[in-house]
Amino acid sequence: MPTARSTARLEARISSDLHAMLKRAAEMQGRTMSDFVVAALYEAAWHAIAQAEVVRLPLGDQECVAQALLAPPQPSPALRRAFTRREKLLRVG
Hints:
Belongs to the TacA antitoxin family. The chain is mainly α.
């Protein structure tokens, strides 16, 4: 049965120069090399995921989105019916 905080092992082959650099950096921060590497990997992974989730739009599209937020269009009859149906379904439950 998995524990509340399970762990996994990660292995990687690195050059001796990189190993020495990581060891030195960890020592400078008063950390173990494992702690230093895990923290650096976490930060890099978080940054990569955050960058991938950012929506990038050309200026013209940005203006369209901003205008729609500032002055949203009136809901269509189909959207009104969908919201009415949703409200009825939620009240029944």
